[in-house]
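STRUCTURE:
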């Protein structure tokens, strides 16, 4: 990769790592369902700037809008139930493992032995984190974060099938789907006080909405989509392993989160699983030539 593209990939990972701190700030004032609705409502407001021609068939826009927009709110719910921002950034990356498994089931993409080993190693790390968390809300938060990652994986498969010309354009279009259903769900499950609280939200909370929508969603996915057009996924995808590194670093620095030796060890196990799953394999030239023949 060119140095400028490496810089963009690292910037993208930093943007997505910092968003977990931002979500933590926002959840202190905004209920999780309403926060998710606001995030995608702001994204949808950019539709007039990209035109009103859908980039793909509506079934894919609706499918991605439901899976990535509405059902991935498990991440927000998980953090609202006590999942620390740093660990949430790490657990959220299990979407890579779920994507491999779903692609095998739906698309017939057979995972390699190394990918299966990486999945097993990573979920061992998650099991260690679960065992080290206090019972109650935090364990529920971990489960909700894993559920959110599962639905992100569903959206990954839908995006792969639909093949949108530009990822960030697809993100804006799919953002039309979540706001109204999530606002209705927020009103009934979180109460009307969340909506009245919008009038007294602090600048920090509004920044959380702006950052999670404009910076993390539109700019982040726009940069990622640009890189995927320049290089193969096997070259770009490993940079996503930096997301939890940035996420944990920002959470420790800005939120004062502490990581026990057990959690640090579990983080290392999960990152090792990510490496096994995402890093491209390098076959010896002789083997590769024999395979070509």
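SEQUENCE:
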């Amino acid at each position: 990769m060119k140095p400028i593209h490496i810089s963009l990939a690292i910037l993208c990972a930093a943007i997505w790592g910092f968003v977990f701190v931002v979500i933590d700030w926002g959840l202190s004032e905004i209920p999780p369902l309403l926060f998710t609705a606001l995030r995608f409502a702001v994204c949808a407001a950019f539709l007039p700037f990209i035109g009103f021609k859908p980039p793909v068939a509506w079934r894919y826009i609706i499918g991605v809008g439901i899976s990535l927009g509405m059902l991935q709110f498990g991440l927000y719910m998980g953090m609202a139930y006590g999942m620390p921002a740093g660990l949430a950034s790490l657990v959220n990356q299990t979407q890579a493992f779920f994507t491999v498994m779903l692609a095998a089931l739906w698309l017939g993409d057979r995972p390699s032995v190394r990918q299966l080993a990486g999945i097993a190693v990573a979920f061992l790390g998650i099991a260690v984190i679960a065992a080290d968390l206090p019972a109650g809300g935090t364990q529920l938060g971990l489960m909700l974060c894993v559920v959110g990652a599962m639905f992100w994986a569903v959206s990954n498969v839908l995006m792969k099938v639909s093949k949108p010309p530009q990822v960030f354009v697809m993100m804006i279009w799919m953002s039309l789907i979540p706001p109204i259903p999530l606002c209705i769900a927020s009103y009934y499950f979180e109460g009307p006080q969340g909506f009245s609280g919008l009038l007294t939200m602090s600048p920090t909370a509004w920044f959380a909405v702006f950052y999670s929508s404009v910076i993390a969603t539109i700019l982040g996915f726009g940069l990622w989509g640009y890189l995927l057009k320049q290089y193969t996924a096997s070259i770009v995808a490993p940079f996503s392993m930096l997301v939890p590194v940035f996420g944990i670093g920002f959470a420790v620095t800005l939120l004062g989160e502490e990581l026990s030796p057990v959690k640090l060890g579990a983080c290392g196990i999960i990152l090792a699983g990510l490496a096994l799953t995402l890093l491209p394999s390098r076959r010896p030239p002789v083997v590769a030539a024999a395979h070509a023949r």
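REMARK: Residues 36 and 50 are 22 Å apart (CA to CA).
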